[in-house]
Amino acid sequence: MNAREQWLADRRKGIGGSDIGAILGLSPHRTPMDVFLDKRGETQPNGNEQAMYWGTVLEDVVAHEYQKRTDRKVQRVNKILAHPEHDFMLANIDRAIIVPEIAGNVRWKDGRLTTDRILECKTANGFAADQWGDVGTDNVPDAYLLQCQWYLGITRADVADLAVLIGGSDYRLYRIARA
Fold first, then answer.
1. 88 or 56: whose pLDDT is higher?
2. Which residues are bridge partners to 120 per DSSP?
3. How confident is the prediction for the chain on average, in pLDDT?
4. What is the distance between the alpha carbons of residues 98 and 172, in angstroms, rounded to a whole number?
5. What span, in angstroms and rounded, lies between the C-alpha atoms of 26 and 93?
C-alpha cells in the first residue's frame, strides 16, 4: 500500500472535517450517502474530481499568499489528528500557524496542537463569490464553517483563519473563532 492509499484508509476510520457538511446535508459537493460509501471504501466518482485536484494543487499558493499578506509563518502538519477522547473525530488540517510566543514549530502534543491558530486554504469558482461574506468575518459557506469548527474542536486551537482564492484572482481572508 502506498502512502496515499494508507492515508485514504486511515481517513475511513473516522469522521473528518470535510465529512461534516455532507453528513448534515449542507455540502454542495457531497451527500450523506457519499460519506457512507467513502467510509466503506466504495467511493463513486461524483464529477468534482477536477475541482478537488486543483484545490489541492492551489493549496500551496493560497498558503503562501496568506504568509505574505499576514506576515505569519505556517507549517504543514503531515498527520491525521484524532480527538484525544473521541477517536472517531479526525482532522486533516491544511496548515498550522506558528505562534512564536507558544512554540517555534507546531507539534501534536498531549492531544492538542502547540498553537492557538490553524489555516484552512480554499479555492472557489468565481460564480460562487456571493456565497462569501465580508472579509474578516466568519460569514463563509456552511460546510466550510462546520469544517473549521470541527478542526478547532479537535486541535483545541482558538481560531481558524480561512483563506480563499475565488475565481483565480480574488483572495480573501476570514476568521473563525472556536464556538
1. 88
2. 162
3. 94
4. 20
5. 20
Are 114 and 85 in contact by the 8 Å Cβ rule? The answer is: no
Assess contact for 107 and 113: CB atoms under 8 A.
yes
pLDDT band at 55 (very low <50, low <70, confident <90, very high): confident
Determine the pLDDT at residue 47: 67
What is the average pLDDT across 6-28? 93
Query: How buried is residue 47: exposed, middle or buried, by Cβ count under 10 Å (0-12/13-18/19+)?
Result: exposed
* Contact by Cβ (8 Å): 136, 114: no
What is this structure's pTM? 0.93
Cα separation, 33 vs 113, in Å, equals: 32
User: What is the C-alpha radius of gyration for the chain, rounded to an integer number of angstroms?
Assistant: 16
pLDDT at 35 over 90: yes
DSSP secondary structure, the chain, as one string: --HHHHHHHHHTTSB-HHHHHHHTT--SS--HHHHHHHHTT-----S-HHHHHHHHHHHHHHHHHHHHHH---EE---S-EE-SS-TTBEE--SEEE--TTT-SS--EETTEESSSEEEEEEEE-GGGGGGS-STTSS---HHHHHHHHHHHHHH--SEEEEEEEETTTEEEEEEEE--
